Each structure stands twice: as C-alpha cells, then as structure tokens.
C-alpha cells in the first residue's frame, strides 16, 4: 500500500481503499479547515483477549450504521435498548458545539497577542511543529508560499489555508494533539496569532480577535475552485 497522509482525495469519496499506509485506516474529512482534504487516521484497535482487531472500512461502515441508529433513536432510548451509555447532557453537547466557520461566525470573544502566543507555542507546540514552524512529528506550519503550483508544493497555514478563522477552530478543537481543548480561548487566539506571524501575515505587535481574524485575507484565499465534476454535487 502506498502512504497517502495529506493526500487530497475527492470529497465525494467516503474513503480511499488501500490508500493509507499501514498503521493508518481510511481517510476522513478533516473538517471545516480543509474541506477538500481527506486524511488517513490511525487504526483503531480494540483489544479482544490478547489480539488487537483492526478497524477496517467495512467495520467502520457497520459501526457508523450502528451509531446512526443510536442517534436516530429518542434520547435515552438507546441506553435502555442496548443497556449501556447515558444520554448526552446539555453541557456535554454544548462543549462540542464549537464550530467556527470560514467567515468568522462562531468565533468567541477574547483576544491574543503574538508575544503571548510565542510563549505558548514554545512550551506546547514546538516539540512537534519545530522552532520556526518547520515541522517535525507534526505538520509544517509556516513557509511554502508560492510553491503550490510547483513540482513540490509545500502546504502550510501560510501557503495553503484559505481562511484564518478556521485555524482558530482547528487549534481549539485538536491541539496540542496530546491535550485537545486544554487551551483557553485567549490562548488559542494568541497561538493562532503567532502562527500567522511566523507566516508573515500579521505584525509582531499584533493583538488578534474575532474581527481581525474574519477580515484577514489569506494568501491562498483565491486558490480554491468549485469542483466541476457532476458526481461531486
Ligand atoms: C505531540 C505532537 C503535537 C503537538 C504537541 C502539537 N501538535 Fe499540532 N499537529 C500534530 C500532528 C500529528 C498534526 C497532523 C494531524 C493530522 O494531519 O490529522 C498536527 C496538525 C496541526 C495543525 C494543522 C496543520 C495543517 O496544515 O493541516 C495545526 C495548525 C497545529 N497542529 C497547531 C498546533 C498548535 C498551535 C500546537 C500547540 C498548542 C500544536 N499543534 C501542538 C502534532 C502536534
């Protein structure tokens, strides 16, 4: 099998069979940040005795159906029927109701400076993303502008991402990868500001908030086109 992490796969494909390297399973939509972008996810294993069971696309589909059934049932009904789980509370649902959209809607109040973001980045992000955002265990975050049309495109926040608000969303939701959602909104604003600074998109003395993120035009903003293939609609 060939490795295809970060490979762009048509959005219509639910997964790309056989495209993921070993240790990774089918590709998943990585959300609002890169809508056209599907990625391989680590294989989910559940222990059955000593053996680890691979979570195949077929099993994932079956599990998806089972999950869909759970969600279709009235709240609480699943718990009674299957004898496990409890209905999600309002607070639990609210804690995941954190979508930020490309136009900036959903961004919370608060703000953060590049300076504050540098400290957070150095303490909590540098180990995986490199001192200057050059990447390591984690993706490269800075540089690469002007390379997308070359033979070796470098996709980073600065070269590839079309919108700034979804950077806030991505970081708040997922990073640091070992402790997602551990940063306060102000800390997320700050580290977002620092990544934008590393890409030359804000000044070193910048203090960013919902309004400035929504109005920041990213270099690759116009680099995305609607997919014309009829079967994608
Ligand atoms: C333990 C390693 C690790 C740490 C620490 C970490 N990250 Fe990540 N980060 C990753 C990995 C791995 C990915 C790629 C995830 C994927 O492709 O699904 C990633 C992806 C990202 C991306 C998306 C890049 C892109 O272009 O798709 C951003 C932005 C990001 N991290 C920001 C941060 C910030 C900010 C912090 C600190 C608050 C942080 N990360 C801490 C491992 C880490």
Average pLDDT over all residues: 78
Q: What fraction of residues sit in β-strands? A: 5-15%
For the terminal residues, how far apart are their CA atoms?
Answer: 30 Å
pLDDT below 50 for ≥5 consecutive residues: which ranges? 1-21, 23-60
Helix content: 25-40%
The CATH C-level class name of the domain at 111-215: Mainly Alpha
The number of distinct β-strands equals: 6
Bound molecules: heme C
Outline:
globular
Main beta sheet strand tally, sense and closure: 2 strands, antiparallel
Q: What letter string, H or E per element, gives the SSE order? A: EEEEHHHEHHHHEH
Number of helices, counting only DSSP H or I runs of 4 residues or more: 8
Which structural category fits the helices and strands?
alpha+beta
Structural Rg:
20 Å
The CATH architecture designation of the domain at 111-215 is: Orthogonal Bundle
As for the CATH topology of the domain at 111-215, it is Cytochrome Bc1 Complex, Chain D, domain 2
Strand order of the largest sheet: 1-2
Superfamily (CATH H level) name of the domain at 111-215: Cytochrome c-like domain
């Amino acid at each position: 099998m060939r490795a295809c992490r970060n490979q762009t796969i048509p959005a219509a494909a639910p997964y790309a069979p056989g495209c993921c390297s070993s240790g990774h399973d089918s590709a998943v939509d990585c959300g609002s940040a890169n809508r056209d972008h599907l990625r391989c996810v680590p294989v989910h294993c559940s222990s059955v005795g000593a053996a680890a069971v691979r979570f195949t696309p077929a099993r994932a589909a079956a599990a998806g159906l089972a999950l869909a059934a759970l969600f279709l049932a009235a709240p609480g009904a699943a718990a009674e029927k299957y004898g496990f789980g409890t209905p999600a509370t309002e607070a639990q649902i609210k804690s995941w109701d954190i979508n930020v959209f490309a136009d900036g809607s959903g961004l919370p109040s608060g703000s953060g400076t590049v300076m504050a973001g540098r400290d957070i980045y150095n303490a909590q992000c540098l180990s995986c993303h490199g001192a200057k955002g050059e990447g390591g265990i984690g993706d490269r975050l800075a540089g690469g502008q002007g390379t997308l049309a070359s033979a070796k495109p470098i996709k980073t926040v600065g070269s590839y991402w079309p919108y700034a608000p979804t950077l806030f969303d991505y970081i708040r939701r997922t990073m640091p990868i070992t402790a997602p959602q551990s940063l306060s909104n102000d800390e997320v604003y700050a580290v977002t500001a620092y990544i934008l600074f590393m890409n030359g998109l804000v000044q070193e003395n910048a203090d960013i908030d919902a309004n400035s993120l929504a109005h920041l035009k990213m270099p690759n903003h116009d680099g995305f086109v609607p997919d014309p293939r009829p079967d994608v609609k």
